[in-house]
Amino acid sequence: MRVTIDTSKFLVNPNSKIDLSQWRTEVPAFYQSKESYLTLLDESRQKIGALQEVLYAHDRYAVLLIFQGMDSAGKGSAIKHVMSGINPQGCQVLSFLAPGPEALEHDFLWRANKSLPERGRIGIFDRSYYEEVVVVRIQPQLLEQQRIPAEFVDPKHIWQERFSDIVNLENYLHRNGTRIIKFFLHLSKKEQRKRLLARIDEPSKNWKITGADIEARRKWDDYQHAYGECIGTTSTEIAPWFIVPADDKRNTRLIVSSILLETLQSLKMDFPQSSDVRRAELARMQTYLKSDK
């Protein structure tokens, strides 16, 4: 079964002015039934898994996937379903919760820097350093907790400066072999309400909702504006943002898997080639094993 998804429709061009209300939260389904969805996703996962093995063996590139979105947008779900076919040895997931005492003693990119994927591996950030230019911007008390010298906390400049810091970091990582893909899972306010209510109605999901989720929803417009400016300012050719419709979780996963697959396919990598010395060594081992009864 083959379905071609035009991922360029979700790509954010560099230096764009992003009004998220103009971006769709739902598009026509790329699948015809649950069965066809599972088939399509499994086909993508198998291809991603095979390329991940090449990535690991080639040991030159790393891949960093960043997932952002409003509460209940499906970040964890997308990671779970798209990446389930990946060898755990070549993949690492980090969830960026509120910074603890140790993190607050460091700069705002410290947690990310210490958690970047090694060469040959895929790293996944469920939320990321982008919280520092969205959540922290909307909740100024969080910035106060970071104890930055007052002369560097000018509200007229700090957010643009942080955007620049992030872009500089991503440029640096790219030059060192890390390919970065950033997904904003774009959920409608109506669909979020439905999902949050489901978390309350189902006892097994009660743990997934907190008062912070409701407070963030009260500031929906502020978050949409902050995300829009952040995405438009920090989407670059080498570390692009994709605004992925998130009202249909199955579609979301198919889009994410297609973007990841395209990225892996674009890398110039292959299994290492054996040298003459190595081939001779392998021949000796082969001779021994065949004669060893």
Automatic annotation (TrEMBL):
Which GO molecular function entries does the Swiss-Prot or TrEMBL record give? polyphosphate kinase activity
- Record-annotated Polyphosphate kinase-2-related domain positions: 33-268
Alphabetical list of InterPro entries matching this protein: P-loop_NTPase, Polyphosphate_phosphotransfera, PPK2, PPK2-rel_1, PPK2-related
Family of this protein? Belongs to the polyphosphate kinase 2 (PPK2) family. Class I subfamily.
PANTHER family in UniProt: POLYPHOSPHATE:AMP PHOSPHOTRANSFERASE (PTHR34383:SF3), POLYPHOSPHATE:AMP PHOSPHOTRANSFERASE-RELATED (PTHR34383)
Q: Read off the NCBIfam families from this record.
A: ADPpolyPPhtase (NF042973), PPK2_rel_1 (TIGR03709)
Q: Does the keyword Transferase feature in the UniProt annotation?
A: yes
- Keyword field: Kinase, Transferase
So what EC number does this one have? 2.7.4.-
Q: What class of enzyme is it?
A: transferase
**Which Pfam family name is an example for this entry?**
PPK2
List GO BP terms, alphabetically: polyphosphate metabolic process
Q: What is this protein called?
A: Polyphosphate:AMP phosphotransferase
Q: Which species does the entry assign this protein to?
A: Nitrosomonas mobilis
Q: What is the lineage of its organism?
A: Bacteria, Pseudomonadati, Pseudomonadota, Betaproteobacteria, Nitrosomonadales
